# Entry
Amino acid sequence: MFPNEYDVIVVGAGHAGSEAAAAAANMGSKTLLVTMNLQTIAQMSCNPAMGGIAKGQIVREIDALGGYSGIISDKTAIQFKMLNKSKGPAMWSPRVQSDRMRFAETWRMMLEQTKNLDFYQEMISGIIVENGKIKGVRTSLGLEIRGKSVVLTNGTFLNGLIHIGEKQLGGGRAGEKASVGITKDLIDLGFEAGRMKTGTPPRVDGRSLDFSKMIEQPGDAIPEKFSFSDETKPLVKQRSCHMSHTSLEVHNILKEGFDRSPMFNGSIQSTGPRYCPSIEDKINRFADKDRHQLFVEPEGWDTVEYYINGFSTSLPEDIQFKALRQVVGFENVKFFRPGYAIEYDYFPPTQLKHTLETKLVSGLYFAGQINGTTGYEEAASQGLMAGINAHLKVHEKDPFILQRNEAYIGVLVDDLITKGTEEPYRMFTSRAEYRTLLRQDNADFRLTPKSHAIGLAGDARMRKMEEKREKSDAFVQFFKETSVAPEEINAIFEARDSALVEQSDKMFKFFSRPEVTMEDMKGIASVKNFIEEHDLDTEMIEQAEIQVKYSGYIEKEKNNADKLNRLEGLKIPASFDYSNLKSLSYEAREKLTKIKPATVSQASRISGVSPNDVSVLLVYMGR
# Structure
């Protein structure tokens, strides 16, 4: 029924599992993707959107590495927005509204067209481990499937429990059963487990809403796209979202159900996402606020189903309905389904290496919500990295690890395994200390060469990235080498209320002024001619503008990153015995022994390890 042995077995076909399977298979591993339902591959369990603050950077990084998320987001988008455009480019974050049904369908079609990838539908109820090494998985029907490596991407399905008011239903998602068995196997092997909670809002019938009473939220006038490849194009038409608000009346109705709320009556003990709280949590924690925003998001091009972003709840369905009918524009609302909360098992990620391989079992990898994260993008990036590293380990090649100054994905993984998480982890730009380097616009420069070197990103992607770099660098050099006369540049300065000049100077100096834009510079004949002669596209022009305007900030962060990398080069043996270093604080010895950092730099980021403790390590290592 199955080959004697797979190189990589991926359990779960959400965003993490789909990216893991695609990466391993595309790199040449004989790969099996096992899921309880092949009809829900890459299902958008919660909001119908990809990207957003910091998450958009992650999607662009996945795309630059050769993953599928960016391409599929473009192909199934119904709206595009570049968030934070009023701020500096380090904060720009792409986001799309997606067609939920087409998104999952396109994922399945792309996976089915991926060589080396097999599929199987059944619950995996256990893992096979011999002498500390993974040997395969066991299905609920008792079948054993042998594999050299296994990637667990179980999402919210491990012992999943759905809450709607006082009602409890076993399940990993509405209408789908929970996965049982794996948690017990892992605990028996010595893994530490915990419980987390997430939630989702009601889905409603758009025909019952009055959009004229709401505030329209259109997409960008000139939409861009996620993928760096030529496989996708920007949208030419878009669907609008809409915005409404809750009110004190809505809040008071919601409070009527607090005594039946699993959030407050003790039914839910696990921790939910701080940055995406339920509506009952919002009105309880922020009692001084008399209203909260609600974003009314279409689920696709043709469907009438809408997602009510901001109204995540596990309150009884009658309370949900009664309260939502008091929201402006929702007076006659009809439900497709109520909101609910879900509790599930996770495994603290400090039990992992930077490759996402577990420390306890060789060849076993965790990715996604099993590691305590929340969000499609965070899950997809972990799946990609786990799939890559599972392939590399099976084929006895060096691991693929991204540093904190190389990618948001590097920040995400390092945060998880170094600091752990006691609440669902969500990526923010503030988590990245080198965000000026980790912009969404240069993800291909940073990551495509690395991915190409390990055999994932293809030759066409590499050539496109090199052309973009060569042409944008040449444009920057043009600004550095070309002078402009006062009469030409002063016309721009006068329009921008900027100080005039009396003599010629290099364009780079003038263009560096904050108030001067690329559109201004295009008015200079020599700039316009350079763009036309060298056939520069929008990405190349934007890249050159960023390099000119932010050169000082970029150079400063590069120098800081170089200092970090020197500490990253100081390796700590896995067998290092911290108990012998009596100069370390007790807390540092305890944390270092538990986490076993791979480098001095990683050790310095562990909560409870002080600068003095780092100095002790450096002295002991002769540095």
Summary: The mean pLDDT is 94.
